[in-house]
Write a structure and sequence with these properties.
single chain; alpha/beta; Rossmann fold; 8 helices; 7 strands; globular; binds S-adenosylmethionine; methyltransferase; rRNA processing; cytoplasm; S-adenosyl-L-methionine
């Protein structure tokens, strides 16, 4: 069983993450919010996997999470980052998932802004505003860069969790973009990687 000290979070934060887990199980039965195969490992596959991003941008104050789904990583970061004043903006086009995000934000009282919209319409609002942009399981890296390049060019850090295809996605994205990428290990999956992208320029 996972404990607050395993995760290095306060008791209060841990209780909010437990609430997220409980409500996700309850909603999943009727709303099918996450892949059913991941339900056995909600902590490992979703909560801890999301939480690890927080330490990769410890100075961030404003965080934009795209395609947040049932709140991974954005809602977990809003819960865990609340004590240090982190403000998280979650963008999700699916109304069922947005209803769940609003429900958890209300129950936990965390500072999360939920935008029910297509990310293409929201990203421009964050030019010069977001310290970090994240997206998990949303699209391949070259597509993520197409969407977020204006932010990354203006100093936002991109944090993109990736599976075992991270290197292939990097190679593909480098055909169009020049950028700096740190390839970081994932704490929850030895084959997964987290890409930390900065300093992007288009070739053309
Ligand atoms: C595979 S899910 C991943 C959800 C979550 N990030 C996770 O890792 O569990 C992708 C999510 O992105 C949302 N999405 C896809 N395209 C989008 C777009 N253009 N704008 C906003 N949300 C989008 C989908 O509705 C879906 O919830």
């Amino acid at each position: 069983m996972v404990t607050a000290s395993d995760l290095n979070v306060s008791r209060e934060t841990f209780e909010k993450l437990e609430l997220l887990e409980r409500e996700l199980r309850r909603w999943q039965a009727i709303k099918n919010l996450v892949g059913p195969a991941t339900l056995d490992q909600i902590w490992q596959r979703h909560i801890v996997d999301s939480l690890q991003l927080l330490d990769l941008a410890p100075e961030a104050k404003t965080w934009l999470d795209l395609g947040s789904g049932a709140g991974f990583p954005g809602l977990v970061l809003a819960i865990a980052g609340a004590e240090r004043g982190l403000s998280v903006h979650l963008v999700e086009s699916n109304s069922r998932k947005c209803a769940f995000l609003r429900h958890i934000a209300r129950l936990t009282g965390v500072s999360a802004t939920i935008r029910e919209a297509r990310l293409e319409t929201v990203v421009p609002d964050f030019l010069g505003q977001a310290d970090v942009v994240s997206a998990r399981a949303l699209a391949a890296l070259d597509q993520l860069l197409d969407w977020t390049a204006p932010l990354l060019k203006s100093g936002t850090i991109g944090l993109f969790p990736k599976g075992r295809d991270a290197e292939t996605e990097l190679t593909e994205a480098r055909k169009k973009w020049t950028f700096e990428a740190e390839i970081l290990p994932s704490l929850t999956d030895s084959e997964a990687r987290i890409l930390r992208i900065t300093s992007i320029e288009s070739h053309s």
